[in-house]
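A note from the maintainers: we've had questions about how concatenated examples are separated. There is no special marker in the raw files; a new sequence line simply starts the next protein. For clarity in this README we add a label.
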Amino acid sequence: MQSATDAADAAALLAAVPAGRRVALVDPRFVGHVHALRLGLTDPRFPAATVPGALTAQPEARGALLRALHRTAAAVGAGAPVVEPEADPAPEDRTVPGRIAVALEAEGTPVQRPALGSLVAAVPTDPEQQAAAEAGLASVDDEAVRLRNAVKAHDGFFTTYCISPYSRYIARWCARRDLTPNQVTTASLITALIAAGAAATGTRGGYVAAGILLLVSFVLDCTDGQLARYSLRYSTMGAWLDATFDRAKEYAYYAGLAIGAVRGGDDVWVLALGAMVLQACRHVVDFSFNEANHDAVANTSPTAALSDKLDNVGWTVWVRRMIVLPIGERWAMIAVLTALTTPRIVFYALLVGCSLAACYTTAGRLLRSLTRRASRTDRAARALADLADSGTLAQAVAAVAPGLRGAFTAPAVALVGTLVMVGGALFLPYGSPLTVAAAVVYVLLSGLAVARPLKGALDWLVPPFFRAAEYVTILVLAARSDAPHAVPAAFGLISAVAYHHYDTVYRIRGGTGAPPQWLVRTIGGHEGRTTLVAVLAAVLTHTSDFTTALTALAVAVALVVLVESIRFWVSSSAPAVHDEGELA
C-alpha cells in the first residue's frame, strides 16, 4: 500500500503497478468496517467497485481509471471542480474515490456499489461526523454481518432452517484454513460418489450409510457457496464446478441406487432413468423461461403481480418454495427414504414429487407468458435457439423452410413433432421401420419450429419439447428392447447429452455464448441423435449389439463434450461469477 498526496501523485503510483493487477484508491480519512472494504475492494466479479471513500478497478478497467485520475489532476490544477457529471448517482460520496467512480460511469465503465446494510463506510469531514461513524462502527458486529451475508438470500425451507444455521460456521472454518470453494465443491462430489457406492451395495447398512453421506454432501454443497460469499472468492471455474457437480452427484446417486436394487433382485433402471429425465426436463423449462424473459421489455402480467403479493405473506413463501421440491428438500427426501425404505420407493417418490412440482411451475410460467405484454429481444431469441440444440439436419430444414410454418406457432410445431416421435417409440411395434419414419417427421418439424426467431409468447417451450422428445425416445426404446443392459447404457447416453445441455445453459448465463456450432454438429444435435437411436433400434432389434451401440454413442458424446467443455472453462476469459444455485 502506498500513499499519494494528490490526484497527480496517485495517477503516477497507479501507472507504476503491473498491468495485470487490481488497484484500489482509499481516502486516508476512511472510517468503516473491514468487511465493508472487502465488499468494495475484493469482489472479483466486477470491473470496478466502490464504497464511500474507496474505489477499486480490475485490470480491464485500469485504463479508464487512469484517464479519470488524469482528468481529476488537470481539473484540480486548473482550479476547476474535480468531477461535474450531469447526474451524480452517488451524491453522498463526495470524496475523490467517489467522484472518480462517477467519472468512470460517465465514460461507460460500470461501477458496482455493494449494499452495505448496517456496515459503516464513511469519510468524516468534521468531529460530529467522526463521532457518528465511530459509534456506528462500535455498534455493529462486523463478523456477524459477514456470516449472515454468507447465506444465500433466497433458499428453500430445509436449507434455510436445517443446514445454513451451522454450515456458515463450517464455511468460516474453511476460510480460516485457506480452503477454497472449489476444494469444498470437490469434497462434496467425492462424498456423494462414496454415497452412491454405498447405495450400490444393495444392503440395508449400505443404504443407511448412503443416506447419511448424501446429507453430508449436501451440507458441503451449501458450504462452498457460503465460503465463496464469506471470503468473496468467486470464479468462473467455481460457478461451473458447483453447477455441473450437482448434476453429476444426483445422477451418480440414481445409478448407485439402481445398481443396489438389481443386486437385491429388483430392476429399477427404468425408474432411475425416468427420474433423471423428468428432473432434466424440469430444469430446461426453468432455464428457457428465464432466458426468454431475461431482458423482456415491460412486465404487465397479473400472474406475476399476484406472485409478488404472495411473496409478502410469510407462510406462502415457504409453502411455494417447498412445492417446487428444491434441491434441499429433494435430497433430504432421497436420503431419508434411502435409509428407511427401498430404491423403488425412492424413485416412486421422486417421480410423483417432481411431476407435481413440474406441473405447478410450468402452469405458473404458462399463465405469466399468456398474460404478459412483453417484447422479446434478439438476445432472448438467440438464447432459445442455442438451448434448442438444433443440429445439421434441423438447421438444413430451417434454412429452406422459413415461410412454411404459416399460422402455426413454433411451440405447436415442436409439440407435434415431439408427440409423433415419442408416440412412435411407444406404440409402434418395436424395431418397426415406421419408428424411423417418425424420426424423419420429427426432423422436419424440428427444423420448421426454429425456422424463424423464437420471439413468441410461448416460444420458450420449444427447447423443453425437444429435450422431452430426445430423452423420452431413448428411454422408451431402451426399455422396450430385450437387449441386456440397454437401459443402463441409455442412462449413460442421456447423462452425457444432459451434461452438454447444462453446459450450454451455464455458458449463456455467464455471458460467453453457447458452445461452438462445430460441437453441436459433431454430436448430431437433438434431432440427429434421436434419429440415430431410432435407426439403431430398428436395425439392431433385440440384440446385445443395441446396448453396445448405445454405450459407444454415450462414450463418443461424453468425450467430445467433456474435452471441449473443460478446455473452455479452464481457459475461459469470462468474468468471475457466482451461480446462486438452483432453487427448483
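[label: protein 2]
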Amino acid sequence: MADDTDPDGRLDIAPPAPIPGQDAEPPEPEDDGSAPQARDEDPGPDKAPEQRTEPDEREEDDRGYDDLRRVHQLVNNNFYGVVDAAGAAFGFGPASSPGLAPGTIEPEEADRALRYYMPPQPCFDEALGRLRADGLVVLTGQDGCGRGAASLALLRDVLGEQATLRSLSPANALAELAASRDLKPGRGYVILDYVGELPDQAVQAYEVGRLSEELHRKGSYLVITAGDTTRRRLALRDRCVPWQSPDPVELFEHCREQLPHAGLTPDTEQELLERVGEQRRPADVVAAAVALSQEGAEKALDTLRDRYRERVQEWFRRQPSAADLLPLAALAFLEGVPERTFEQECAALTAHVRNWEQSGETPVAEPDDETRTPSGGAVARQSRARWKERAVGLVATEYRPGPGRDAGRSERRLVFTSPRVRELVIAELHDLYGYELWYPLRQWLGELALRGDLDTRTEVARGVALLARYALVEVDENLLKVWSEGITSQRVTAALTLQFMCDVEHLAPQALNIVLSWTDNSGQGRAVTAAMALTGRLGSLYRFQALTLLWFLMQRGERIAFSARRSLVLLLQTAEQDPERVLFTLRYVRTVIARTAPRSRERSIALRTALQLLEATRLEVPEPVTAALLRTVPDSARQLGALWADVLHSSNRSRAVSALCRTLVQLRDDPSVTGAVRELGEAMRNAMSGRQWAALCHHLSIALKHPDYAIPGARQLARILLGSLRGRPPADSRRSAAPLMSTAPVPSSPGGRSK
C-alpha cells in the first residue's frame, strides 16, 4: 500500500517494469562510486545531436512548466488575498472527506464522519447482509446521498470501531485488487467514487468472484461507492445496493438529540422543519442542525434557504436579453481578470454568438432595443455603469493588483459576490440554454485557451472545472481532449482544469481517470499534458498513483521523460508545507533507486531524477528546496542523505557535490539546523563505503574553495557534516582516490530543469 514502509524508511512498492522498445532513451553510464570523474556523463543539448530531435517541443514544454510554476507560486503566496475554500486548489482546498485520498483512514477521521450518522433503511440492512455474505458490496446512487459515510459505518459494523480501514484508488483499483495477493487479514477497504477501469483492464465477473473468495478467506471486507451507471456493469450488477438518503426531518431530529438544545418558537420550528424537508443531501441537514445549536435559528434558516441560489434563479427567471446574458456568461469563465481584459473578451464572445446567429440558427435571446442601437449609440450606453442594474446582488467590483504589482498598481475587476454564485450561474446556463449558446461559448473558450494570457487561462480552467460538475462528458470530449494535444497554452489550460476539478470530491476520481487515459498510447502531447496535470492538487490527493505514473512516463521518450521529471520536482516544491508528502516523495524515489539493477537504464533514469530533486529551488525564492526541508521537515535529513549518497555513487557526482555546497551555503547563518546537518552526514556515511566516504570528504573540501562557496559559515557546516566521522575511512583511502573531479559549480535551473 501507499504508506507501508520497511525499517529503512523505504516504501513497499514495486516500480513498473520498463516497456521494451517504447521511446527508449540510452542508459547513462555509471561507475562503482569509488572514484570521482572529471565531469558528468549527462551530455548537454549541444553535445549529443541525437538528443535534440524536438527542440521546438522542448521549448514549448519549458514555457508550459514556467506557467505551472507561476500558478503554483501565486497560490502559495495567496496572491489574491483571502481565498474562499470552495475555490482553492493545488493542495490548499477544503478538507477532503475521509477516504477520498488513498491510504489509511484514521479512527479519528471515521469518528468525525460518523458523528451524526443515522443508517437509512432498508438499504443499510440490505448492504450489511450482502457485505457479510460476499465480503464486498457496491453502494450506488447520486452524489451527496451519504454513500461515503455509509461505507465507513458498514465496515465498522462488521469489524468493530477500532478496525484498520484503508481507502484504495478509485481508478483501476478493483482490477488490481482482484489480481493481487496483497489483501491483509481483518481489514476493511473502501473505494470511493469508483469510476471503472481502462478498457484493457476491465474487471470481469470471475475476478470479482475470486476477490470475494479472497476477502472471505482473510476475514476482510470491501465497500465500493459509485454512480448509478455502475449497476449496468455485468461484473458488479449482483453486488449493487441502490442507496437512499435518510429522511431529512428524522435526521435533523437525530442530530438535535446529540447537540446542545436551542429554543425555538412554534412558527420558527415549523419553517425550519419545512426547509429541512426540502433537503436531499444529508450533509446539508447536519450543517443546519449544527448551525441551529451553535448560532441560532436564523443562521440555520440561512443555511437552508440558500439565498444565493434564490437570487441566481430569480435573475434567470426574468429571461435576460443577450446584452445582459452574454456578459454574465463570460464572467462565469473570467471572474477576477482586469476589467479591460474582460470587456475585450466579452466583445469576442458577442462576435462568436453573432456569427453563429448569422449562420441561420436560433439566436441565444431576443435582442432588446439596445442591441439594435448603431455603434455610435453603443458607445454612449455607459456599459460599465450598467452592471449596477444588470446583476444586482450577483456581481461586484474590486480593486486588485496584478501579479508582481503593489497595491498602488491595482486595477478594477468584476467578481461574483460569492464563489457559490459563479457555480450557480454555470449550473443555470447549463440547465436552461442549449446548443445555440454553448456552441459559440465553446468556440470562445477554445480561443481563450489558445491565445489568452496566463491569468485568463487560469480563470477559464476554473470555470470549465465548475462546468464539469454538470457536463463532465461534454467538457472531456469537446474541450479537454482537444486542448490536451494542442499547443502549450492549451495543454496548460487542460492541466489546470483537472487540478481545479479535484476541489470537488466526486470529480477528483474522474480527473485521475482522464489522466490515466492520456498516458495509455494517446501520443506525446497528451502524455506531456498528463505529466503536467499530475502536479499540485491531483498529485497531492493521489500521491502514490501520481508518483507511479510519473515513474512510468520517465521510461518513455526523452520529451515525455523530461516532463515527468519536471512534474516530480514541482510536486516536491509544492509539498514544502506538507511534511508527510515531502517524506513520501523522497521515500518513493529512494525505493525506486533501490529496486533498479546496477548499470541499468532504469537506474540511470532514477538517479537523474534524484539529482534534479536535490538541485531544485523553492517556488518563492531562488534557494535550494533541500535547505528549506532540512530547516522545517523532521526526518528529511535521513531521506536526503540517502538520496545524495545514491547520486554521489553515480556519474552525476560533481553536480551532486555542487548541490550539497549550495545547500550548506544557504544554511550557513542558521544555527538551528546544526542537528539536521549532522544527521544528513550520518545518513550519507551509513550508505557509503570507507573509500567512497573518503572521496566525498576530499572533493567536498575542494569544492568549498570555489569563490561561490568559500564562505566561513558554509565551511563550518561542512565540518559538522563530516567532522564527527574523522578517522573512519581507511588510512590509504586518500591515496586510492582517482584524479580530482571538476569543481566548477553547476548552477541549478528553477524547477529542477536539466540543462
